[in-house]
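Design review, sub-item: ligand-bound model
Attendees: FS, YL, KQ
YL presented the inputs for the beta-D-glucopyranose complex:
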Amino acid sequence: MRFVKGEIWLQKKGAYAIIKNSMEKCTKAGYNELIVKGKCLNGQNYFLNGRIQNMRMTKKVTAMALASMMALSLAGCGGSSSTTATTAAATEAAKETTAAATEAAKEAATTAAAAAATTDVADKKVGISIYKFDDNFMTLYRTELVRYLTEDLGFKAENVVVQDGKGDQAEQTNQIQNFITQKYDVLILNLVQASSAPEITDMCKEAGIPVVYINREPDATEEERWESEGLNATYVGCDARQSGTYQGEEILETANKGDINSDGKVSYIMIQGDPENVDAQYRTEFSVKALTDAGMEVEELLKQRGDWDQAKAQQIAQDALNQYGDKIEVIFCNNDAMALGALQAIEAAGRKVNEDIYLVGVDALTEAVQNVIDGKQTGTVFNNHFAQAQAASDIAVKFLSGEKVDAVNMVNYEKVTKDNAQEILDMLK
Ligand code: BGC
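KQ shared the predicted structure:
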């Protein structure tokens, strides 16, 4: 499989991307720009899992940034043989949304590096608020945000301020108000409650400060309002329907499609994140939908909120294993932190993942990916925090340079099973 654009060509060869010819021209920022301009001329999707060859890399992290941008930029191009089936199994709606939105993210990123090069960001102030620091996934995400803004885009470290919303919307709203009073130039916000977006957007609009929402998606009415009223507000994230579908497919890909005891149905428990979060809602719905769409009968033994939290999930799984015992064939967790908790309970109950119970999560935390390799977790889904953090930062720069920004910018998820877990782990490390 080979894609051609100008002087750059990419070839899928195992998990390697080989980039040729334009090396001399590539500056750090230019890498992204050149890559995101690449087109899949044969309509095939290109999934990048890894390493860059034949290119002078000063740091591993630069390779990682490039890899993320490529995953982002090429996400909308079609489907590789291994991903065609999975994409086909996703709902039409999810497909359309993802394709349209990844296109938007692609375009945003295409000009971002150029914008960063022309916009003087040295004295611009970025205010970031994370819904709570005590969240494994958002910790990875905010680390990459700060790294990318300062190291790759040239913001001064003292001008990138990250606040902890501590899971309290009132407290977070105050922090945002302070950013506004102190005349920050752009805000990147991971809201405690996505339903607060209209109020926060209006506060930012009054002050003339653009806002990039991340991770917790405001509802469609609010996103449409940004478009119709021409507000400088946008969302960067992933379509959680895709991650749910991938979880379901990972169960379908097991030898017995999740029906370990051959009673004609898949009996599962669902450990949910914070149900106000659309990621939790969609993962819950679409993981099971993938099974029923494939003709499997399902039985929900329990659905309980674990608030994305490992300890809570451990307790929920422990209680469920006590109550339902061998009846439980699958434990769906809306994220990996909770899958790690569920695994502790599974092991304490003397059960064996992939033998008498299946376990799936989302995020691709390194510990969870290692568990997939070791056969202690059936699968996970890579929630690409690198690509999301970089897209959010690039879009912030677009706002600063006065460019138009689309309301929704989506990054693709990637399935992680035993087949590719080592590659994903190598990339994460
Ligand atoms: C991640 C969770 C995280 C949540 C925070 C989700 O996309 O999968 O791990 O806790 O975002 O909002």
